[in-house]
Amino acid sequence: LDDLERRLLAALTGFSAPVHRGLKVPSIIVADDLTPSETVQLPRDLVLGFATNGGSTTSHVALLARAMGIPAVTGLGDITSRVRAGETVLIDGTNGTLKDGGEVPIFANLHPGVPVGGLREHGARGIGLYRSEYLWLNRGHEPTEEDQFRAYRDAARFTAQLGEGASITIRALDIGGDKIVRGISHKEANPFLGNRSIRYLLANRDMFKTQLRAILRASAFGRVRLMYPMISCVEELDESAEVLAEVKRELDAAGVAYDREMPAGAMIEVPSAAINADAIAKRVDFFSIGTNDLVQYVMAADRGNESVASLYQPTNPAVLWLMRHVIDAARHRGIKVGVCGESASDPVVGVLWAAMGVDLLSMSATYIPVISAVLSRLTRADLDAYARIPVEMGNDVTAREIYDRCRAWLAEHVFDFENIVL
Ligand code: PEP
Ligand code: MG
User: Does the annotation count 233 as an active-site position?
Assistant: First the structure.
């Protein structure tokens, strides 16, 4: 009757666009439901499978699909709202699942000066970390406001081409540690614990204000987010917010356009910020967990020193405890939390962050295809099971044991895992 109703209405109104209008490449059809006539009208050579909200294994679409030898999964409830046109999904008509772990978007980390061409090719959905300090490191001196503005604006414009939902997170200057700019950085006995990043910016207000002005001006050209690096306490955020408000007032007075809603977030990469994540979360619009530094500081193991490389352990129970704590704080305060440390590019670890509830992963673009392939073969239920592995193993285990157990689970549950990660 539904089918007849639709066909009758189409005939009466003269509007009878075929259901497959716009279908140009072989695709999986994701629909609320399909009537028998809609199903048979579809060009067989362009239909790889069906996934529908309604129906059952004996509904018409399922029966016809079976007759045509096309895999179909019906009765998925809300699949039309969970996948987007053009997204890659894996359909398992035998077990009745559509794997969609790809719901966690994967963004790219970008160094200014490195060609952006590969980002689209590798499937980056945005730029999750723009390491602005490379504008200083590439030049060896402070870039002018115009130099910065042009670089940020061009990156923001490029980001818009990465599709709907794309944004660029520009991190304020993160110098210090191993990122030394002659003439700007000072010699320190212990640079990783020294006058780095936000500490340096708050002590050099003019430089901070220049950068904020350039970032705000660029925000008129694309979806820009500002991120403060190396936050270790709330007063750094309060002071930064004051500086940002002052720069906005100055831009307003000069009539300069910028995005008034530009989100401002914090890197969570210092243990004190991770532990006090709830208070930090109250003051920002998002978190991005920098596991490169967070693991280094939690384990007291220099991230660049090979002789302590074995202590660089993202799956150490202490690190996992802290990650859960930060993710919970973000949830509690209703802000998004991403991971932009390179740990996310290892599928065993990146999938774990996604499973534990992060909203976004950002990594070097070349790793994106592998992690996307693994995630797209997992459902949310799979991810929940995966997240339970380290919880069930408890704290009295080594990072290696957790890593190996997780890896074995992926090898068992992800179709073709060994080949994907090869
Ligand atoms: C991090 O610390 O994880 C991070 C992404 O920042 P960087 O590697 O630039 O210190
Ligand atoms: Mg860092």
Answer: no
* pLDDT digits 0-9 by tens, 359-392: 999 999 999 999 999 999 999 999 999 999 999 9
How much distance in Å is there from the Cα of 171 to the middle of ligand 1? 10
Return the best residue to mutate from 292, 319, 322, 343 for the ligand 1 pocket (most ligand atoms within 8 A of CB): 292
Max CA distance (Å), the chain: 82
> Which amino acid is present at 411?
A
122 included as an active-site residue? no
Q: What is the C-alpha separation between 315 and 406, in angstroms, rounded?
A: 10
Q: What's the CA gap between 237 and 379, in Å, rounded?
A: 37
Structure tokens at 395: 């704290």
What is the pTM (predicted TM-score) of this model?
0.79
Q: How far apart are the first and last CA of the chain?
A: 52
* Stretch among 23-32, 172-181, 383-392 having the lowest mean pLDDT: 23-32
- Where residue 53 falls (left for φ over 0; alpha for ψ -120 to 50; beta otherwise) is alpha
Chain position carrying tokens 């030898």? 69
State in Å: Cα 112 to ligand 2 middle. 16
Say how many Å lie between the CA of residue 354 and the centre of ligand 1.
Answer: 18
CA distance 66 to 68: 5
The one-letter amino acid code at 349 reads V
Comparing CA positions, the residue from 147, 155, 150 lying closest to residue 131 is 155
Please tell me the total number of residues recorded for the chain in this structure.
422
User: Per-residue confidence at 27, pLDDT binned at 50, 70, 90?
Assistant: confident
* Structure token pair of residue 165: 């939902």
**H helix count then E strand count, the chain:** 19, 13
**Residues near ligand 1 with C-beta < 6 Å?**
129, 131, 174, 269, 290-293, 340-341
Q: How many CB atoms lie within 10 A of CB 208?
A: 21
Catalytic residue among 60, 122, 332, 413: 60
Q: Take residue 111 and report the two structure tokens written for it.
A: 């160094």
Atom of ligand 1 nearest to the CA of 296: 2
Q: Which of 325, 340, 406, 413 is catalytic?
A: 340
